[in-house]
Amino acid sequence: MLGDARANAAAAVAILNRDGKGPVVLICEHASNFIPLNYERLGVSMADLQRHIAWDIGALGLSEQLSALLDAPLVFATHSRLLLDLNRDPSAPDSIVTESENIAVPGNRDLPDAERQHRADWLYRPFHAEIDALIDERLGQGLPTAVISIHSFTPVYLGVPRPWQIGVISREDRRLSDRILHALARDESLSVGDNQPYTPAQRVYHSIERHAEQRGLPGAMIEVRNDQIESRIGQMQWAGRLAHDFRVALDGFFSNAALPARRLSIDTVNH
């Protein structure tokens, strides 16, 4: 189950509202569960392809709503994370998994280096190059820019319940995440995780590190429990809530708290 020219027929990246002028660039790395036919579903059942192992359920719908409400460009992936996790450096061992929550992914076993390189060239490089180019353009236009990635997580993982409805993931630069957490805390009915259900130490922070931290831009990773956003109504409700909280978090931010951002003119992918 190796790649060939047919695998490249579908673009690896899509962008919505590219010319949006709002102060946020949205990223959705796990938007799709699509796997080209020549990969034979990587040996995974159709039922398992609908589960969280293949994509972040509801994340794209939520991101699309946020894009509209915030006038924000949205860059999203068009292929399953099982082919290559775009929120990992492609050299990381877990960028291509052979098992996910005890579900085997036979098509990823014993991959030759050439296939790993093919997937990086086909999926990773265009996706992150699109984000690089978009941010460069915005900074060149003098547009305030924060980078927020949108994800969802399963309510139960390996038998362990996850009580949080939403989590905000951040590392040393907490300028934006602390403001978002403060805005979310105004709703006492919410269970909010600070670096839950993941932490950057689990290598989940690659996109924000690359596109926000390395430029000195504010960034945060948002994780919404997928039972909250599996329906269109849930996506709309959470989009309304998060759009408001992002606005509150960013109010006055760029005039008072931002560090100088820098433009990138080269692709910094490591192989």
From TrEMBL:
It holds the Pfam family FGase. InterPro entries: N-FG_amidohydro, UCP029730. The keyword Secreted does not apply. Gene3D superfamilies: Zn-dependent exopeptidases. Keywords: Hydrolase. GO terms for molecular function: hydrolase activity. This is N-formylglutamate amidohydrolase. It comes from Ahniella affigens.
